Amino acid sequence: MTPPSGIIHSSQYYVENTNILCTSIKSAEGSYRITDYAPRFEQYEPYYKPLILIRKIELISGHPKVRVECHPKYHFGKSSFQKNRGSNHIQFEWSDVKMRLVTNMPTSHSSTIWPI
Q1: Cα–Cα distance, 85 to 91 (Å, whole number)
Q2: pTM of whole model > 0.90?
Q3: Per-residue pLDDT tens for 18-50?
Q4: What is the DSSP string of 44-90?
């Protein structure tokens, strides 16, 4: 998720004692924060560790725009997935491997510039 005008400054940090990674990005149009985490919680005795990554984008200042791209690869970058679009998701498939990107952004374009 990069600004089309380029990055002026960026920094990263983990929220103390968590697996939550925060990335702050400043561009000519403004700044925003990307927060990434993989949920982990106790449920029915063992810890529940779903195979999911959650990403949240928050406005810090100005009117920044971001370029959103998702091009997962398989076999150490040698194979690409077939994309199938749904109303709020993109399904990536390769052989018996399936992944889904769920979003509240329109999925009509694979690479689009969006205001935050």
Answers
A1: 6
A2: no
A3: 899 999 999 999 999 999 999 888 877 788 888
A4: SSSEE--S--EEEEEEEEE--EEEEE---EETTTTEEPEEEE-SSEE
Which distant-in-sequence residues (6+ apart) come within 8 Å of 24 by Cβ? 10, 11, 12, 31, 32, 33, 60
d(CA 12, CA 49): 24
pLDDT in tens, 75-116: 888 888 888 888 888 889 888 888 888 888 777 655 555 565
Residue appearing with tokens 């052989």 = 95
Give me 4's structure tokens.
Answer: 């089309």
Which residue bears the tokens 């990403």? 55
For the chain, give the longest Cα–Cα distance: 49
Per-residue b or e along 71-94, where b marks 16 or more CB atoms closer than 10 Å to that residue's CB: eeeeeeeeeebeeeeeeeebebee
Sorted by sequence, the CB contacts under 8 Å of residue 99 that are 6+ apart come out as: 72, 81, 91, 92
How far apart CA 70 and CA 6 sit, in angstroms, is 18
